[in-house]
Design goal:
Elements (H helix, E strand, L loop, with lengths): L30 E3 L14 E6 L2 E6 L18 E7 L6 E7 L5 H5 L7 E4 L4 E8 L8 E4 L5 E4 L5 E4 L5 E5 L5 E2 L8 E3 L1 H4 L1 E5 L5 E6 L6 E4 L5 E5 L6 E5 L6 E6 L9 E7 L5 E6 L4 E7 L2 E7 L6 E4 L5 E8 L5 E9 L4 E8 L7 E7 L4 E6 L2 E7 L9 H8 L2
Antiparallel strand pairs: 1-4, 2-3, 3-6, 4-5, 6-27, 7-30, 8-9, 9-10, 10-11, 12-13, 13-14, 14-15, 16-17, 17-18, 18-19, 20-21, 21-22, 22-23, 24-25, 25-26, 26-27, 28-29, 29-30
Length: about 400
């Protein structure tokens, strides 16, 4: 139930989506691809439909915005063969599976299609597709700076920038899959096993290799003390480290995973308003968000899934993006709000099992109070309705102000 502590799933680690360029980490990737039988030319304008479903709001984008051209492409509800690509330690295998998707009458009437869609769970929020990125890239993380610019890391494809006018440019050509937020753009990035490196940026996107060795540096984060943390999520060298931002020297903080004796694994990390480092992960027993206290992690909130990305949210909360496989093998996505003080979590939004769902990243603009969610190549903008409400009757209002 939203707003309550989440019950725990079985103890086996999540099947977590990874990019095909990540070498040995590919064994945890399970991607669902639906071939598009109506693939049309280039530029397609976003259309948004709203469907009321049991008090929730489903927002669907029925056409995709690519880079050029001027043609509408409205996909139809139909039968699609889904190809599940699940690389393994032996090079991967393909398995085909037919899925039947039936849209409800209200969904069809509202123009809902098999394109990306988002369902809002918490009341008082609205969502819309903010921008569609080039579909030929695979995106991993997203951050926002003080001016409202979004930065999306794409591993080998560098870092894209989406300015408030929604103009997309290549901000940096650095090989990074995860980046840390900064006032004027990302400050640091991790290249995983592609480059085995941690990168430092200036405000214009120029970069230098801060540290490089044989480890698959996975996630990075900074705290208010300007301490740079980096983790190796599994495998050789697994653990949490600090990296000197001047000379790239590393110091081991936690050996192994966040659990007792180094059990478990790590996901995304973030510094929080309280000056602490928080990390998603699994401690061998529980999935959750963990706080670093000195040189040990402490579980502060149990979660249904270990998640992918973690960022600061409104009012001291944290926001988590999730990808996980359903019992039928379909990749699903969720956005959660986490209160690390109370140890509670609330489901904010879900992606629908159509198209290429699952949330890779989430970012929060504290100035505009907007949440951005990265779903495949689409950026969703989620806003809370701030319109004041009143239950006063007209008679009551007149009596209140009668002189």
């Amino acid at each position: 139930m939203p707003g309550a502590r989440v019950g725990l799933p079985p103890s086996a680690p999540d099947l977590r989506r990874r990019k095909s360029s990540e070498g040995s980490q590919n064994r945890s990737l399970c991607r669902t691809v639906i071939p598009d039988r109506h693939a049309g030319p280039s530029r397609l304008t976003d259309a948004v439909g709203f469907i009321a479903l049991a008090g929730q709001t489903r927002v669907s984008s029925s056409a995709e915005d690519a880079n050029a051209g001027g043609t509408w492409h409205i996909p139809r509800a139909e039968l699609h063969p889904e190809v599940h690509t699940c690389p393994t330690d032996h090079g991967g295998h393909m398995r085909a599976k037919w899925q039947f998707w039936i849209l409800v009458v209200g969904g069809i009437a509202a123009g809902a299609t098999r394109a990306h869609a988002l369902t809002l769970i918490q009341p008082g929020y609205t969502a819309e597709v903010y921008k569609s990125l080039p579909a030929f890239n695979s995106y991993d993380d997203m951050e926002v700076d003080q001016s409202g610019n979004l930065y999306i890391s794409a591993c080998n494809a560098g870092v894209l920038k989406v300015d408030p006018s929604k103009i997309v440019t290549t901000w940096s050509i650095a090989t990074v899959c995860d980046v840390t937020p900064g006032d004027t753009g990302p400050r640091f990035g991790a290249g995983r096993s592609i480059c085995n490196c941690v990168t430092s940026f200036d405000s214009q996107g120029s970069y230098t290799t801060l540290h490089q060795d044989t480890l698959g540096w996975t996630y990075v984060a900074t705290t208010n003390a300007n301490t740079l943390y980096a983790n190796v999520w599994v495998g050789i060298g697994q653990g949490l480290y600090t990296i000197d931002t001047n000379d790239g020297h590393t110091t081991t903080i936690v050996t192994g995973g966040p659990g007792p004796g180094g059990a478990g694994f790590y996901s995304g990390m973030t510094g929080s308003a309280d000056g602490k480092l928080y990390a998603l992960g699994y401690d061998g027993t529980t999935r959750g968000v963990f706080r670093l206290d000195d040189t040990a992690f402490v579980l502060v909130a149990a979660l249904a899934h270990s998640g992918i990305s973690l960022t600061q949210g409104p009012d001291g909360t944290l926001l988590q993006s999730v990808q996980f496989d359903s019992p039928s093998g379909i990749l699903l996505g969720e956005i959660w709000s986490i209160d690390p003080t109370q140890g509670t979590s609330a489901l904010l939004a879900t992606s629908d099992p159509v198209g290429q769902p699952g949330f890779d990243g989430v970012a929060y603009d504290a100035t505009t109070k907007i949440i951005y969610a990265l779903e495949g190549n689409k950026i969703w903008r989620i806003r809370k309705d701030t319109t004041p409400s009143s239950n006063d009757t007209w008679g009551g209002i007149k009596a209140k102000y009668r002189r």
